[in-house]
Structures are given as C-alpha cells and as structure tokens.
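Sanity check

After download, print the first record. It should look like this:
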Amino acid sequence: MAGGGGGRNVPLGSGPRDGMRRDGGAEPYWSRPESRVWTVMLLLGTCLLYCARVTVPICAVALSSYFNWDKKQSGVVLSSFFWGYCLTQIIGGHISDQIGGEKVLLLSASAWGFLTVLTPLLTHITSAHLVFMTSSRFLMGLLQGVYFPSLASLLSQRVRESERAFTYSTVGTGSQFGTLVIGGAGSLLLDWYGWESVFYFSGLLTLLWVYCTYKYLLSEKELIIPIDYLTRGLSISRQTKVPWKQLFRKAPIWAVIIAQLSTASTFFTLLSWLPTFFKETFPGSKGWVFNVVPWLVAIPTSLFSGFLSDHLINQGYRTITIRKFMQVIGSGVSSIFALCLGQTSSFCKAMVFASASVGLQTFNHSGISVNVQDLAPSCAGLLFGVANTGGALLGVICVYLAGYLIETTGSWISVFNLVAAVNSIGLCTFLLFGEAQRVDTDSVLSGTRLCFGKGWRLQFPLQEPPGPE
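Expected structure tokens:
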C-alpha cells in the first residue's frame, strides 16, 4: 500500500475519471468511449506534430532564397532539429511515467505551437536570421522529443493489452497524415501567401488542438500536478530512482531496444534517401508521386496491422507470438521489398516496392512499439525514450553511411543491402530474446510495484501467472 496508511494506490499522475472504478481496486484503463475520444485526439496531435516538424523542410527553398542561404547553411538549419530531438527523449519518458503522459503532451504541444506561430514574427525582427532559425529548430526538437515517449507511457497505463496495438497503430498514422497535410496545404499556402503562412497554419492548428484537449479531456486541477513537479526540478532524484539494474539485466529489454534501434535507423535512411533514389534513377518521374504514394499506402497498412494484432490476441494467441509475427512483417518482409528496389529498372515496379517497404514498416507499431508497454508499463515512457534516442543517433550514422556507400560504389544496391542487414540484426535479436511478460515488477501476482521510490507507488490489476512465452 502507498505511504500514509490505508490509502489505496492509483495510477501515476491520474485522478479519478468517469471511466475508472472507484472501489478498492482502482482500474487505470480508459473506458471504451474515453479510449475512442483519446485515440482520435492523439491521432490529431501526432498529425500536428508532423505538420510543425515539416514546416521548415517544406519552406527550405523559399527560406534559402529569402535569406540568401547556401546549401550548407540550409543543412545546418535542417539538421539542428535532430540534435534537440535526441536530448529530451529519456527525460520526457521519465516525467511522463510519473505524472501522466497526457499532461506532458499538452504542455509540450503548447510550447511548440507558440514557437511555430512566433517564428516568422521574430525572424523578421532579428538580423541574425541563420542563428535564430537554427536555434528555433533546435528548440523545436527539444519540445517534440518528449512526444512519443510520453505517448508510449500514456498508452501503457491507460489502454488494455488487447487493444494497445490498434490504438498505437491508429495514433501512429498521424505521422503519415501530418506529412500529407503539410505537404499539400503547406505547398499551396507557400505559393499563395509566402512561407510565413505555413508556420501560422501549423502553429495555430496546434494551439487549437491544445485548447480542445484541455477543455474537453483534462481539468485545470490535473494540470497543476506537472507544473508543481517541474518546479521541483527535472532530474532523476533519489526519490525517483528507476530500477535500472533490474530492467537491464533482462534479455527482453535489450531485445526490444536493439530492435527499436534497427527499425528507427532504417526508417530514417529510407526517408532521407528515397527521394534522391527516384530522382537519380528515374529523372522523368514526378516528385509528388514518389513523395506521396508510399505514405498514403502506409496509412491503411498501419491501421490494418493494429486491427489484426488485437484480433489475433483476442482470439487466444499468445501476445509475444503476435508481437513477433508483426515484427517479421515490419522488419523482414519490408526489407525484402527494399532489396527489390535496387534490382528494378521500372518506375512502376519501383513505386510498388517502395510503397510496400514503407507501408509494411508500419507493422512495427504492433510489434516492438507496443512490446515496450508489455514489458514495463510503469516505465514504458523512459524505456521508449532510451530506445528512440539510440535509434535517432544510429539513424544519423546509417544515413551518412548510405551516402558514403553511394559515393564509393556508385550503386544504390549497397544502400538497400544496408537497410536489410540492419533490420535483420534487430529482427533476429527480437525473435530470439523477445518476450511479453512484465519485467518491471518483482511479483507479477501481487501486481504492486515500487518503481519510483518512496514518493510514488503504482498498482496494476492482478494478473494470472504467465505461461512460458
């Protein structure tokens, strides 16, 4: 029991909600109506996350012309986002595990929404345009770096295991929706009203989303908790220790981290080099075709993977069996199509292979992405942050290595071989050592875990003894 005598334990960062039980055994999960509303709102939030993230890439040519930047200076601005993005993954997940991911999401979205709206105004005021835009993108990366770890933390504590894959896959489609929305609407606004309008469009929509989420899904009382926590500092203090030794002695933890490193890095590699591949291999092809079609395909495949995963688990199949099956498709089958890309000379076939590879990668949402939540729901945000940080850093290495291979070999086959090799390492590791049993508790039967020291206790519903996975 929590400190203070006979008080009952409740989920971290959560107060009583309409969809939760109020008897002695607190139910931390959303009710079905709550889950539907939150899923829609989080999908929109992910969409707007990518809208804000892609504003500068969409306006890169216009900004370079307006401020007389060369390619090197534009590259500095574009890459600055990534470095900020890496720095807040772990701390974002850690804070979310303690106070609730929904609160961290709302606070960060408020900040990046205001930053996006203010960027054009402040850029015109300052004379050091390059320094300001670089700093702005770095800060944007810091603010958005907490999003996906917070999302993992939130869903691990509020969504039932049998519904997590579809929920996460649905929310994950927001990344494709956001890329398409800002690619379409942003391009039109850029042509009609200038680059400033793209920033206003993205920032104001984000602030509108924040307002609606606050008004209809969160109360003012709930938002006091993270602000009070932040005033006490963001460091992992003695009272908020994470059981690193226990967690990192578990092979399944390393398996999911290595798999996440692999899939994230290969995703960044394809995202960075596919446009160049099509431009150089098929000079007469239309950019709007190969920049849009694969991401359109990824939306239904992501939704289907989540539906299929939850359906199979509800039919009685073992959770780990389904997670591994999804990962075989997401890492294995998608790599086969990536290899086919380097072997074809037909634009139509290349589009099919690229769309299949990008689309099937979304099956990872129902594999390793939710496996983190299976293994350690009380620390899912922090662990996801660790894996995502490593994946982003490895992504930079793979993107650079891919460019080096193209220069030295003169062939795109080596790039797709690299993608397949890295994916194979992560997939094999997950197939050998991956599990779906909880590892963040000393006693699964008791369901009670002291994960963050004396100040926080977390109680989960009692579980049946797990069979061998």
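If your output differs, re-run the checksum step. Summary of this record's structure: The two ends are 30 Å apart (CA to CA).
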